[in-house]
């Protein structure tokens, strides 16, 4: 009996030693064998995190540190590791352009995990691979035409009026307001109206079901974060283990909402609301033949991406305007001047004239891109200009946050300066120096709607309120490390007062 236990222990020790040697002496030598500059990995997670917990940071900031270290090599990409999996990190803007546009067929997939069988709502436009994505993208593109944007403006304005009312009520309790949650409640109500035709009432009820589901989608504990890394690095194994992106109750909630919304509209016999669900139902009834799960998957994507990214942009923009009062005043003056031409009403045409507001939003998106990184998977073997080879199924990261904060591209990048986006300044920069919505065929399909609700939210707020830094407002933002998007850690408090 004793000898059997000893044999088992020795076998485990031997297997551990062999595994360790394989990882450190072979797997972690991949980039070295390819003669590609790389960041030295650490066992067992590679470059996924630092060893010192106090130094752990959001992945976008971590990739920016790697980018800064590798960029001096003057190559198209450098190497990092996620567990034992080698990942290419883009370093050159011409290479980024080629990946996103010119050589798109080599990088047409995002390489983000989804499991259509066990987790049907994870199979959406953002995650699907080339053939399925291509068909679905063509079907959904008509959602975001100029005509539909004008129609949706009225829906967004209705929620913006509620936002003004809600903030005014908050000021009766305290002049210091937590902006992150307020903006998330605003965009939740907007998406609820525009996607589902549902009054979410998050502004009046912070604990509404839709708001809670929004929080749940983007919450991440240590265990789920490790699962996310594993699913990204080893998608086939993750599917074999039946791993999921969304928890079952989140999936059930959105399936029920979609089914009930479609049932109600079918009973009413009219699908002319011109919202996102309207389009999806027409696709269901056409030759496109979308299933209920496919409709629910796109609705969940539109909801989660639409409320989180725009609420973050609104929060960061108000933060920067609070710290830069002269810029805030200039934006407000533009809003007042243009609104006066339209009987002091917010219209789609009035918004289109607010060019300085556009530059303020773009500068916010530069400093705080909603997605700090873009992900791509190699679908066809690719050779870089230097002759380095990326083989099929390898992953590539485009570090947007790093590019946006590169002092060789943007002078004094930590300074908030909307004049960077004067037309002449933009023309002088590389087209891939600004990528808040990606570029090429897989750019963000909802970028026009995201900008629309962001502009309406800012106009509604700045025309009625003044925003200033409070005693607790940080002078530099610390990002929530476990969040998929860039979001301030612990909320963001500003002093607010109503204009007289």
Topology diagram in text:
Elements: H1 2-25, H2 30-33, H3 59-70, E1 77-82, E2 85-90, H4 93-102, H5 130-140, H6 146-171, E3 176-178, H7 179-196, H8 209-218, H9 222-233, H10 235-240, H11 248-268, H12 276-285, H13 292-323, H14 325-340, H15 348-353, H16 355-367, E4 374-377, E5 382-383, E6 389-390, E7 395-398, H17 400-404, H18 423-428, H19 447-462, E8 465-469, E9 493-498
Parallel strand pairs: 2-7
Antiparallel strand pairs: 1-2, 3-9, 4-7, 5-6, 8-9
Helix pairs in contact: 6-7, 6-19, 7-13, 11-13, 13-16, 13-19
H-E string = HHHEEHHHEHHHHHHHHHHEEEEHHHEE
Q: Which parts are unreliable, with pLDDT below 50 for 5 consecutive residues or more?
A: none
Instruction: Give the radius of gyration.
Output: 24 Å
The main sheet comes to: 4 strands, mixed
Number of helices: 19
Note the beta-strand portion: 5-15%
Number of strands: 9
Helix content: 40-55%
Spatial strand order of the main sheet? 1-2-7-4
- Oligomer state of the chains in this structure: single chain
Distance between the termini: 86 Å
Average pLDDT confidence is 88
Structural class: alpha+beta
Shape: globular
What does this structure look like?
With about 500 residues, the chain is α+β, with helices and mostly antiparallel strands. The chain is built from 19 helices and nine strands. It has helices spanning about 1-25, 30-35, 60-70, 95-100, 130-140, 145-170, 180-195, 210-220, 220-235, 235-240, 250-270, 275-285, 290-325, 325-340, 350-355, 355-365, 400-405, 425-430, 445-460; strands at about 75-80, 85-90, 175-180, 375, 380-385, 390, 395-400, 465-470, 495-500. The protein has a four-stranded mixed sheet. Strand 5 (about 380-385) and strand 6 (about 390) form a beta hairpin. Helix 6 packs antiparallel against helix 7 (about 180-195). The chain is globular and about 85 Å long. The protein starts with a helix and ends with a strand.
